[in-house]
Amino acid sequence: MSQPASAVRAVIGAVLTGQVRPFGPKGVPSGIAKTAADDRIRVTALGLEGDAQGDPRHHGGPEKALHHYAFDHYPAWREELAAQGAQGNGVLDVAGAFGENLSTTGLTEAAVCIGDRFRLGSALVEVSQAR
């Protein structure tokens, strides 16, 4: 069972946006490449201003307006890559490797459930589905 949202202690480490560009060997249009914003960004019903998705069938829209991923998970992914003998090339040293718009610490699946609501500045966001 998750903690009440009021009991969750989280820190937003980065707010990230990106544009659609070719991705992978086939050049599939994707908005997965995100960079951290230096300034405030407006949150709309469809996501962050200045952010784009390459495949609107599976990304974006009012039920998937923001993609959150806990930075708390990054160390485990670095260990997984190392265990497989893969080089991460630093991609897992900073937030955004999983195409997330919000990178946090302290806001993992252990503390959050579908339907939980959080205040992010003046925006009220609700967890609508898992990825």
Topology at a glance:
Blueprint (H helix, E strand, L loop, with lengths): L10 E7 L3 E3 L4 E3 L4 E2 L6 E2 L2 E2 L19 E3 L3 H10 L18 E4 L11 E4 L2 E4 L5
Parallel strand pairs: 7-8
Antiparallel strand pairs: 1-4, 1-8, 2-3, 5-6, 9-10
Report a brief summary of the structure.
With 131 residues, the chain is mostly beta strands. It has one helix spanning 74-83; strands at residues 11-17, 21-23, 28-30, 35-36, 43-44, 47-48, 68-70, 102-105, 117-120, 123-126.
Write a structural description:
The protein is 8% helix and 26% strand. It has one helix at 74-83; strands at 11-17, 21-23, 28-30, 35-36, 43-44, 47-48, 68-70, 102-105, 117-120, 123-126. The strands form four sheets. The protein has a four-stranded mixed β-sheet, with no helix packed on it. A two-stranded antiparallel ribbon has the order 2-3. Strands 5-6 form a two-stranded antiparallel ribbon. A hairpin with a 2-residue loop joins strand 5 (43-44) and strand 6 (47-48). The mean pLDDT is 90. The protein has one helix and ten strands. The two termini are 19 Å apart. The radius of gyration is 15 Å and the shape is globular. It has a single domain, classed as M1 Pyruvate Kinase, Domain 3 (Beta Barrel), CATH 2.40.33. 22% of the residues are buried. By secondary structure, the chain is mainly beta. This is MOSC domain-containing protein. Pfam families: MOSC. It comes from Cupriavidus necator.
